[in-house]
Specification:
The protein has helices spanning about 30-55, 65-80, 90-100, 105-120, 130-145, 150-155. With about 170 residues, the chain is mainly alpha-helical. The longest helix has 30 residues, at about 30-55. It is elongated and about 115 Å long.
């Protein structure tokens, strides 16, 4: 008679060292994912902050003083982000100095914006400037065309770092 052969059975599970299928100890996959997320937020954080500040500065407000100051601050931030130091002087002096380096449309927009800021600052009851956003957009486009953004400046805008001058 022939000896009886054993029927094949499932192999017994091998002991594990507590690792996961990717070779990392259990829980490390989550730690790596969380670390990658934090790095991503740290890299994008300044850019997202800059975008949020622009929205706040240009937000609709019924106070003409706050609206015009916010618009002026946004144009200043755009210039600083592009590596252009903000000139010292009154709004008209700043607009005149920057305007020398901008195209005609940008020069007109920044001059009109400077006048709106001046009126908001010194008129007893200033009018609500109706074209602020358009003026900021036009002046910003002219600044961006004149001074290209440094690569790092797209993710780490200079306007967020006080005390860092471009000149």
């Amino acid at each position: 008679p022939r000896p009886a052969t054993a029927t094949p059975t499932a192999a017994a599970p091998l002991p594990t060292d507590g690792g996961s299928a990717d070779g990392l100890p259990d829980g490390w996959g989550w730690a790596w994912a969380a670390g990658a997320l934090l790095l991503g937020l740290a890299g994008a954080g300044p850019r997202l902050t800059r975008m949020a500040l622009a929205k706040i500065r240009l937000g609709a407000t019924s106070d003409p003083r706050r609206a015009s100051e916010g618009a002026w601050s946004e144009v200043r931030a755009v210039a600083r982000d592009r590596g252009r130091a903000w000139p010292v002087g009154t709004t008209r002096e700043v607009a005149a100095e920057l305007g020398l380096e901008l195209d005609a449309e940008g020069r007109a927009a920044i001059a009109a914006l400077a006048l709106a800021v001046e009126r908001a600052r010194y008129d007893r009851e200033p009018d609500q400037p109706s074209r602020l956003r358009e003026q900021v957009r036009t002046a910003s486009r002219a600044i961006q065309a004149r001074w290209p953004a440094p690569t790092a400046g797209k993710w780490w805008p200079r306007s967020l770092w006080p005390g860092r001058s471009s000149r």
